[in-house]
Amino acid sequence: MSGVWVFKNGVVRLVENPGAEPLDGNRQGSSSSARRKVLVHVPTNEVITSYEDLELKLLSLGWERYYDDPDLLQFHKRSTVHLISLPKDFNRFKSIHMYDIVVKNRNMFEVRDM
């Protein structure tokens, strides 16, 4: 995992390619040749292409779905304090969410360049 950590409006986020994305988060000027990140389930080498796929993998790892917030998909693992919060729309699923899943599920998921 490489890049620059940016703190703005009380939120820390990773800018993976600082040359392709302005620090203010505005992606309009980013290069069209920037590589897209994908989340991969390592045991099956499967690219996660939907929340349905992701939910099946997380449930098999002991995660439970929370339904408290209608704007988020949330998963909690009883044996930990970890909570995974994802935007409801899969099109807004970004690399920061992918890395959150990777960190909380070591050796089960990877983020790769597409």
TrEMBL record:
InterPro entries: FPF1. GO terms for biological process: regulation of flower development. Belongs to the FPF1 family. This is Flowering-promoting factor 1. It comes from Hibiscus syriacus (Rose of Sharon).
